[in-house]
Amino acid sequence: MDTSTDRTKQPMAGASHTGPLAGVKVLDLSIALTGPYAAALLADQGAEVVKVERPGIGDIARWVGVAVNNMSAFYLACNRGKRCIAVDLGTDEGQAIVMKLAAEADVVLQNFRPGVIDRLGLGYDAVSAVNPDVIYASISGYGPVGPYRDRSAYDTSIQAYAGFAATQAEPDGPPTFIKQNAADKVSALFASQAITAALYARAMGRGGQHLELGMNDACVSFLWAEAAGNEVLLESDGTMPSSFNAGFAPMRFADGWGIVVPTTDADFAGMCKALDVPGWDDPRVRTVAERRKNRDVLEPIMDMCYAMASNFTQVEVIERFERERVAFAMVLSAAEMVDDPHAVAIGMFEEFDHPVVGRARLPRHPTNFHGTPANLAGGAPALGQHTDEVLTELGLADRIDSLRSSGVVA
């Protein structure tokens, strides 16, 4: 392969100036995952993002999980393409600096608990007074109102509240949590979509606005579509599980795991044929409607499919499933995904050199914008890496030394 055009081997580019959000200025006051990841997605799409962190420790995400030279993979992934200024928001001068940035921003993003940002003098009312067209996004665990508004919220607690843990549990089994920050990332996707929608509304002449997003709201909305059937259809008979996916389970092949999703009639028939299991043409199971009514006939056929799976290697069964055009996938780890032929063919991952962590790899932005190309926005910044640069742009070059010596910036 000609590595000059291989996206997986190129050094990471700087912020995309071709993306659909080129020219949009984002001020990121958030920490951890939800806000930073939302801002990183905006950066991939061309936005210029300035991240504000506290001097000394910075965003706690810098220190979580696998790290090289005191920068974690977590921080690298969620803060790519941003410039970082270290400012003490507990000082009047620090607040004034951030307000100057907010006054010039198209988007301000923060995820303090309700009321905290207002006490710092940087809430929506204060910022919109000097920047009426601002899109101001506030993310919190349970939103700005209600009896839980002041509760601390982490991904796992939101998974518990919003239904992730209950949905993952086996019947009559204990709650089961997804072993990743699914609630944080779901909320980040909702936040980035809401921000771009608000930018569109502003471009159409409808002005700036305040966006308030509770992680609980985002996750309930995410789950409700197919995981709360009996709670959506209030006149259902309750004989089926609320979760559409409750019956799907992995298959054990001779040399690994995979899954088949026999949703359509063709998928069901194809799965049985591929695994040499008879009975798929029984009139009592040939259609979705009949399978729903005749679960006593369906279940022994499904049990046989799972039993027969162990007779085939993954290579053998992949050929059979593809021939029958069955919806399936093999279970891959993150390490296996990197070298998967499809991932390599589509350039799913980009490798790049980072001045702090060395060689690194991230998945590219998932959407191909054919008119306004999006790209991974660049490496994550060191703490305070761009403090002097940003202060100079704000006209504060002559005060940098005194601000630093007094601990306002770093």
Automatic annotation (TrEMBL):
InterPro entries in alphabetical order: CoA-transferase_III_domain (IPR050483), CoA-Trfase_fam_III (IPR003673), CoA-Trfase_III_dom3_sf (IPR044855), CoA-Trfase_III_dom_1_sf (IPR023606)
Keyword Transferase set for record: yes
Signal peptide: none
Keywords: Transferase
Ranges in coiled-coil conformation: none
One Pfam family this sequence matches: CoA_transf_3
GO molecular function: CoA-transferase activity
Membrane-spanning residues: none
Name of the molecule in the record: Unannotated protein
Organism listed in the record: freshwater metagenome
